Amino acid sequence: MLSLNGKIVAITGASGGIGAATARLLAQRGAAVVLAARRGERIDAIAQDIREEGGRAATCVVDVTKAEDVRRLVSITVERYGRIDVLVNNAGIAPISPLADLDTEGWSAMIDVNLRGMLNGVAAALPVFREQGKGHLVSIVSVAGLSVSPSMAVYAATKNAVRTVHEGLRTESTDGVVRTTAISPGYIRTDLADSMADPALRHRTRENMDAMGIPPEAVARAVAFAVEQPDDVEIGEINVRPTVQA
Asked: Which one is catalytic: 81, 107, 129, 155?
């Protein structure tokens, strides 16, 4: 049977939602996890829960928009556990709005967190993966990039950019050293709507999440499936959405 025993996994955006669910599930299945997020007290509490349940977990306060923070995450993971097998780029925000609102600050924030944050992960992990002789980059993308809805243009653009970077890295990594997986969730019950400044959009998003959203554990299981594959198998992309979502 496939197993996560012995895997060393660092996860950004692990203070809640998909990141926290992924950390808990991977730890339950035998991986050692390093939780990273800006909210140190929150990741510390989750890591403590994991340890109390018999798992292995550490934490690192990280702002993914800062390259040095993500490098520190990789370094701490290697120092504590001897290597890093997987980096899960999960941190993301969605201050969506119609383009006509000209929310240039929101646009910049999405570019910085969703795209630059992922690129900072690539820059931090890739040299270590190559030095080790193997490694796996997993990024949480979005089905929003597959079919662009009103108010989602810039958010979808950042997620599509991440998808493109993943495909580029895949084509550059056919020597078998680095694997890549892009996982695109649909409506998942998380606090992503909290980053939306527009009250109407925030309310509508929360209504949709309440009406059709599936738990973040559904995405965590997809991460586990991709990560537990043997080294000669790469799961390139997975879409995880509610069965009732159009």
From this structure: 155
Ramachandran angles phi, psi of 107, nearest 5°? -60, -50
Please choose, from the candidates 242, 18, 222, the residue with its C-alpha nearest in 3D space to the C-alpha of residue 143: 242
Quick: pLDDT tens for 133-177.
999 999 999 998 888 888 899 999 999 999 999 999 999 999 999
**Residue 155 annotated among the catalytic residues of the structure:** yes
Element containing residue 228 per DSSP (H, E): none
| Neighbouring residues of 163: CB distance < 8 A, sequence distance ≥ 6 | 141, 145, 182, 184, 237
pTM confidence score: 0.94
> Are 18 and 190 within 8 A, CB to CB?
yes
Question: Which residue reads 């993971």 in tokens?
Answer: 77
Task: State whether residue 34 is helix, strand or coil.
Answer: strand
CB 66 within 8 A of CB 37: no
Measured distance CA(158)–CA(164) in Å, rounded: 10
Q: Contact, 78 vs 84, CB < 8 A? A: yes
Which of 182, 172, 161 is closest to 234 using CA atoms?
182
Reported as a single tens digit per residue, the pLDDT across 91-111 is: 999 998 899 999 999 999 999
Backbone angles phi, psi at 25, to 5 degrees: -65, -45
Within 13 Å, how many C-alpha atoms sit on residue 126's CB side?
12
| Structure token pair of residue 121 | 């992960």
Partners of residue 19 on adjacent β-strands: none
The H or E element containing residue 135 is strand 135-140
